[in-house]
Amino acid sequence: MANRFNKRKHFVSLPKHKRNDHYINLKNRIKRDSSIYGDLFWSDLVIDESEDSRWCDFYFLGLDKFTIWNATICNAELALQDEVHDIAHNQAISMLTKEEQEEEFKTEFVPADRSPTGKVLTYLMVERERIPYEKFGGLTFSEQVEKIESDIITNAPPNIYESFITDRSYSYGIGLSIVMDVEVIHRKQIEQAILKFREIGEKNWQGEKPVCFK
Prior knowledge:
alpha+beta
């Protein structure tokens, strides 16, 4: 998922006093909204316990006074779907020529709204007719991706592990991608992930055994 701060200077390169300022601001935000998110994290998102949510973006404090963790968490099922989709998408792309790729992924826009003086205010992306390919047995690119996804899930699903993966290139905090073997991602699961991450020393980690899907 895109980080809204990713065009700024990397957080880890900021002076300690600036990182501490961000740390204190997040600490105050967590305290302010503790009735919503508890006292371990804060999020831009509404966490609805009635929904079967499989992912969430959130922020929490590091064990020192200079680190903010900018985290994304998902359950293993969603991680599997994402991994399979990426594999299938790349396989389908590799089957197209350079010219076919350019035609398949080009985007066109037309004016959608104009001012009284005729100035274009907004544009609308043109809905393109999908191209069937002989090499795909008459399927479109999207249909071929779905076919490959189905084949992968049936015959050779990739291994998915519980994990913590850090990314120091973020401009707000340090990035952290979390995969957990749970059915839903609610406040309880986020709190468990934070406590486990702290327990292992706030570092990259992968479970010893892959997740077993029923």
